[in-house]
Every structure is written in C-alpha cells, then in structure tokens.
Amino acid sequence: MSDTPVQTSATVLTVRRVQDYHAMTLVAPAVAERFRPGQFVAVAAGGAYSARLVRRMFGVYEVKPDYGGTVEIVFANTEPGTAWLADRSSRDRIDLVGPLGRPFRLPRDPVHCLLVGGGPGGAALFALADTLRRRGCQIHFVLGGATGRHVFGSRMAQRVGDSAVVTTEDGSTGERGTVREVLPRVIAETGADVVYACGPTPLLRTVSRTAAEFGLPSQVSVQEFLGTTGACGVGTCMTCVLPVHGEDGVTRMARACAEGPVLRGDRVRWGDLGTIPFDALGAPRALGLPDGGARQ
Amino acid sequence: MSNGPANQDTAPAPGKGKAPAPASDRLRTRLGPLDLAAPVLTAAGCGGTGRELAPFVELSRLGAFTTASVTLRPRAGRPTPRVAETPSGLLTAVGLPGPGVEGFLERDLPWLAEQGVPVIVSIAGDSAAEFGELAARLRGAPGVAAIEVNATCPNVADRGRMFARHPAAAAAVVRAARAGAAPGTPVLAKLAPDVTDLAGVALACADAGADGLTLIGTVQGAAIDTTTLRPALTGVSGGLSGPAIRPVALRCVYEVHAALPGLPIVGVGGVTSGLEALEFLLAGASAVAVGTALFHDPGAVPRILRELDEALAARRLGRIADAVGLAHRPAGHLPPLAGVEPAPAPEPAELKETAP
C-alpha cells in the first residue's frame, strides 16, 4: 500500500536559512516515495523525552530521489518547537509521520493553472508546480506578503512558472499591493482554468471568492490553519476542524488533517472558521426545544 | 547494572519470541470478566475511529481499542481552538464530537469488529436515561467487548457538573448503563480526579454494578494566550492530559486500589513507556490505557507492550496479576518469581532497577 502514511526516524541532511525561513531536508525514502503534492508531514519536536507533545505539521516543498528519497520542508521559527527544529544539524534523527492528508486534485488535461501562495506555506506550491509541469500544464504564480521577506520563493517562481506576479504591501519586492487586488487581472491575463492556493487563511478566502466569481474551481490547502489548531496530524485528536459544506448541502466539521488539508475553496465556510455554525451537523441547539432540537 | 544477570535468568521464559502476533503469555490480563491478551489499551477518544491508527499499528496487537465517547445524536463538538500545548501535556476541550450512536453502529463499529481487537465502547450522555438508552442500543452489536461509562461528562440536571463529581450521580449513570447493557457485557466506569473523595465515588460505582473502573479522565485546567490576551481555548477551561498528570493518575489508582482491592482498574494518565505502564500495574491497575501519547507517537502501544514485557521479565514477574498492586505490599515483600527453578531469592535492590 503506497498511499498509507508511515512513521519513520528520518535523518537530517541539511538545515539552512532561506530568507526569513528555515529549509530542512530529511532523508525519508518511505515518505518521499508515497508523497503527492499538497500532502504534509507531522514532525515530533524536542526529541525522545520531549515535553512538547503536539506534532508540528509542515507542507512539503520538494521530494528528491537522492539518498533513496528526501523530503524538504520550509518553516518559520515562531515558537519553541520550531526553534528546536531549526537548531538541528546534519545526521540528527527526527521522528516523522507522513505523507498525510489529501493531495491537490490534478487536472486530466494540460490546462492553465494559477498557483497562489503566501508565507512559508507557499513552498508547498512548488512540488505541485513540478507535477503539473510534467502533465504539460501551463503554470502561473501569484505570490504575496506584507514585505519581500514574507514572500517565499519569488525567484523560484519566476524560473519555473510561465509567468509570476509578486505583490508586497510595502512594494519592497514586485508590485505594491495585495493578492486580492491583482488576482482578477492575472486570472484574465493568463486565462487560468483552475486556481490552487496555499498560505494564510485570509489569502485562501480571497482566492476562493475570486475564483468563484470567475466560475473557476479552486483547490486550497488549509495547511496553516492545521498548523495552528492540530495536534496529531493523523486524524485522531479531532482538534483541527473547520466547517465545510458537502455535496448534500449539509455542513460538517471536517478535520483539516484527514479530510484536508486540500479542500475545494467553495466548500469551506471561511467566515465561520473558529465557530460551530448553528446549522452544522451536530451543532448545539437551544435548550428547551424537544430533544434539544438536534433531530432533523 | 543488575539488568544483565536478570535477563539471562529469564531469557528462556515461555512465550517470549520475536513473532509479533500473539503477545507473550506474561502479558495476559483480566478486567473482571474480560480476558485481554495484552494489558495496554487505547484510551477513549485518542485513537479516532481506529482507521486513523491502523497505518501505524496492527490493531489486533492492542489489548483493546476504546472508542471515542458515543452519544445518542451526532455532535459537532466545540469551536477551535480545541487544544493548547502545555508542559508535558495537552489541554483540550474537544466537546465529544462524533457521528452519534446510529452512525457509530453503521460505519465505525462494524469496521472495528473486523480488526480482531476487543472493542470497549465509551458512551456519554446528558442524563442517566441517555446512558441507559445508549447501552441498550449496543446490545447485540458485533464486537462490543465492554462498555465504558464516561462519567466525566456534564450532567445537565446538575448545572453541567460532571456525573463523576458525586457518588450518587456517578452511581446513577452506572446503574442505568448496567441495566441497559446486555447482561454479559462488562461495564467500566471512567472517573475524574477532580473530586474530594475518589474512593467514595468508586465504591458507589462498584455498588451500582460497575465491573471495573477507568482511572483517570483529564484534570481540569486552563491556559491564557498572551498574544490575544484571551483564554487559549474557546471553552476557557479544558482537560489536561499527558505525562503532566501521571502522578495524579497514579495517586488515584493507588488510593482506589487500596480501598477496593478486588475491583479491576484500567490506569490512564500520561503513560508513554513500558516502565510507566508498570508503575500503574504496581499501583493497582490490571491494565493501562494510552491516550495523549498516541497523538505524539501513533505507534506507541506496541512499543510500550514490548518495553513492559521486558520490564516484567527483568523483574521475574511471570504474570501481570503478580505485578498488580505490588506497591501496596510492605517493604521487603517478595512477589512470586517466575523462573525455571526456584533460584535463590534476589536481593530486594534488584526489584528497584530503573530504565537503562
């Protein structure tokens, strides 16, 4: 079974600084061979006797066949767990679980794909770009952030994309502005057939809405939401839920790690993240109604 | 250290082999009427539906799989954030999400029943009547090895305070579940540590027909997010779990075993290794359940079983039952030792060895 995740002790090959982020390459052949773009890995931080029990979840920037198979992750050092990871050096071992979650759905035909990213989460788009390229797709990037330092991979995007637009709010790199401002223009110019996105939640919301306005399907990775709310990465802890409405019109609390991290942008109730919408399946109902009003 | 000779003595112990399938006989245990091949279970709500753990562990190697608490109706649970990382622990307020008993019986239980693992179904309700109804719904369902009454959930009739807070309330839910459940199905009561007189609550549960106890549920705690200046969890308070609460759990198990030595106990609280599992057995538990450790290490249970088997062998404890409650014996007491011949009794110091 190549689509089931594995737990493995991965060897650190390199850890290096990339802009404001850290890029770590791990030798993990079993993870690399199973990986599909959009999936993520869950890392135990702090070693065997760690007091930190929450797994750190990261999208995968790239897998390579070197040393039997390597996995590269990109992360920002924001808390003690990521600080521990950033401190690792070559040949250290790290407990790794992966690849996890549902990958990006890929188009059957060679179509025009728009890939939108921001922050370190944008790194996951490059593995996707590689796969799309091999399918003959046209690839266009839009990367955005507050400043040039917040935009990961802008030069890489110029190199691998058929086009690449970078926006920063302070104008330090690329155009001054936001992704929201340039997105309609880029969709029109590139003739995009599908929009992929990975990055901060507000960005995903913008992308989903804009794609819907143009009648385009959007595939967004809620990797960052997962990173801030999840604990296990494999679907057991039930903490990374967000409201998603299904084919049947019923809103369910979906796990970002197991039902995601890649979701259809138009299915996520972006405005209701961090809540249980009153009409979600199993939502608490007003007391005083017969049987709590829960039976429909 | 003294590990060497002890290992040599016990190397040819029966049932010890590399083959993973049947756990060694040393690991067999009983929870009242329930016979388990291994003493390490998953704790309620920590193994998902079982499918999520399956890529990492062969479920048939678990002593038993405990489900997430099953409720009468589907429950969405609490809003996020539901978890905060605290020192050596997790603070969670998940709110018992689940598909409800119908969805559980339709989708989750049939799959679990095919995995060759005893399934302990945790049930949770707002009232004693709901517990009774849930237990009745499980009658005749395939693969239900036991029912665990989650008495740590809020009692709506008591302004949301836990059933496990009060002996009478805890007894009421156990009695209701006992009455609803099929006569042969063991009923375990899961209790919380945040009570004044745990032994009193335990006794009330035993009187109400509990075949055993699961000790303990989470400890109430809180954390504040210093960035947002607000509670870290939407529910403000949450349940603390993980190694942080292990001493509390051990105290509870020891206390209840001292008061009710005949009542089987499943020890739960921060077990991450075989030696920690052994601590619970020595304190009086007949089995241990692993919870939070599964989030950190989904493959934890087989490792803990292996470590526990080695730890028992190193101490010449031939059966789980020989270890249960041993810490209650007076200093200098020697347990029945497993060995091919009645070897000269080891020095008491040998019993005290710790991890290599």
Description:
The complex is a heterodimer of chains A (296) and B (356). Chain A is of the alpha/beta class and 296 residues long. Chain A has seven helices and 15 strands. Chain A has helices at 29-34, 80-86, 124-134, 154-160, 179-190, 201-213, 223-229; strands at 6-18, 21-27, 40-43, 56-64, 70-75, 93-100, 112-118, 138-145, 163-168, 175-176, 194-198, 218-221, 241-245, 251-255, 262-264. In chain A, strand 11 (194-198), helix 6 and strand 12 (218-221) form a beta-alpha-beta unit. Chain A starts with 5 loop residues before the first strand and ends in a 32-residue tail after the last strand. Mean pLDDT of chain A is 91; it is low at 292-296. Chain B is globular, with a radius of gyration of 20 Å. The termini of chain B are close together. Chain B has one domain: Alpha-Beta Barrel (TIM Barrel). Chain B has helices at 3-10, 100-113, 128-137, 167-180, 198-207, 246-259, 274-283, 292-296, 300-314, 320-323; strands at 29-31, 34-36, 40-42, 65-66, 83-86, 89-92, 119-123, 144-150, 154-155, 161-162, 187-191, 212-215, 219-222, 224-225, 230-231, 237-241, 265-268, 287-290. The A-B interface holds A 4-7, 44, 50-55, 81, 95, 97, 228-232, 234-242, 252-253, 258, 273-276, 280-284, 291-292, 294-295 and B 45-48, 51-53, 55-56, 68, 73-83, 85, 87-90, 92, 94, 97-98, 100, 234, 242-243, 292-299.
Question: Concise description?
Answer:
Chain A is of the alpha/beta class and about 300 residues long. Helix content of chain A is about 20%, strand content about 30%. Chain B has helices at about 5-10, 100-115, 130-135, 165-180, 200-205, 245-260, 275-285, 290-295, 300-315, 320-325; strands at about 30, 35, 40, 65, 85, 90, 120-125, 145-150, 155, 160, 185-190, 210-215, 220, 225, 230, 235-240, 265-270, 285-290.
